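Researcher: Next entry in the queue.
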Amino acid sequence: MIPNPPAQNLTIMVIDDSNTIRRSAEIFLTQGGYRVVLAEDGFDALAKIHDYHPALVLCDLMMPRLDGYQTCALIKKNPQFHAIPVLLLSSRDGLFERARASMVGAAAYLTKPFTQDSLLAAVREHTGGAQGAQ
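Model: Structure for this entry, 134 residues:
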């Protein structure tokens, strides 16, 4: 069994066009001990993913220019980043949205608004149980 990576090295990328959601996620994740990289949209995220190599990506579905489905698909098609789990975030909780998220390679689908506990539990689940630095 491969040990979990050092917790202090886990970086989580949050992609959302809402400043409120980005900041809420940043606060929750930082309090959980994670490093956080913020991106305003898919294009911003794709530029930053090369520099930060996050352990996990949280991505909003409904964004201008490049939506969450497209962003997730582009991350998953890149051999360098294919293994990074992408969790899609949306206020919609329909079967169609969940199915499409699965089709583009999303590891999970979370609905907004999320709580700190639900967000951290999802992050731990998809990063091999590793927590941020305590």
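Model: The chain has five helices and five strands.
Researcher: Noted, moving on.
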